[in-house]
Amino acid sequence: MWLGRPVADLPTPAFTVDLDVASRNAQRMQERCQALGVALRPHMKTHKTLEGGRLMTGGSLRGIVVSTLAEARYFADGGFNDILYAYPLPFDKVDDCAALAEKLDAFQVLVDSPQALDRLKGRPLRTGQPWKVWLKIDCDNARAGVKASDPAALRLAKAVSEGATEMAGIYAHCGNSYGCQGVSETQSVAQRTTEITLNFMEQLQEAGVPCPKSSIGSTPSCSHPVPIMAKLSEVHPGNYIFYDVQQMLIGSCQLEDVAVRVWTRVIGHYPHRNQLLVDCGWTGLSLHSLGQLPTGFALVDGHPELKLVGMTQEHGKIEPMTGKLDFAKFPLGSLLSLIPYHACATAAMHPVFFVHSGGRVVETWKPVRGWRRFPRLVIGEGVAFFLLGRAGRETHLRGSAATPARSLPLFLSAACPPTHSRPPEKRVGKEGLRRPPPG
Q: What GO MF annotations does this protein's record show (predicted)?
């Protein structure tokens, strides 16, 4: 219903993506990597959409990074392959990972501990193929990963290359680049991370441990790569498709490279406190920018004189940086555009992205949400069926034939399209599970 409509018609708060800018950002990163001679394995965590994934892979649908199993399943179902689940292996999700590894040509996991590796070896893949495992090393980022200088890192790498697992590569995240100010500092971090990674690759080679790939990444480090990065196999930035104010401050991009905005409407004038009230609170923007900007929680596009000074769940307070606010410039119902400090955090607040070109909506993108895809609800012939997936197997829990689909909660009915086929039933327990009739 929104296609072809101007952005000004959208219900607010609205998260918008400038398709031309996002496409340009994706193309530039591809060109950077081609010039460097390394593969680009883009991270999907910023947008979590199939459409964004197509842009970032140049349409190949291969070679991506995800940070949740929900993302992994979503992209696999959307036709993507060669997916790296770049997160320290959660023990409760090994069976889910196995289902994906048995389904795809190349589903890869990441470990940084012997205990996680033991979990994989204790669940060999039914295809007979070994698990494809990346070893995460910590290159001064101080989050996940084993220190490359720790003898335990080499022992773990040797163990990965044996039995039911094989080494896919060495993975490092330049998360400490987010603390940099300016290109020079960022490049120093990229240089250091690359050196540590390549030195560890040499240790593996000397120890006779096969390791085909090395990968580092972050949007700051990959926006201004250093020459030594050409010795890597691949890089894995993600935020660059959108960019944001944080990236501007680091030096990764310019204002014209930021593809996203949050549109909000003025809903209140309060002259006694010199403030406007807008309909975007922290549920539409996030609080990640707290204390980071002189303009408050975001930049108000086109209005450097304004400051977003506070947010509650659904309200934002805007006041002038100095002096008296001219309320006549911002009548009730008028629109303001907020440039988010952190696009990843802001995008995570919105169920739909309004994608525009030339100010008119051309697409809507609907991101995947959550950490492990929730049970699906299928409506058919007035019967509600809950389909619970685990390790690639589905159990069908029988609903009540007396319960019409229209009596289900709206959020369930709206989220699940009707189906014309009734799935095979499986009784659960002695009596099965039935939804009680209404009323």
A: D-serine ammonia-lyase activity; metal ion binding
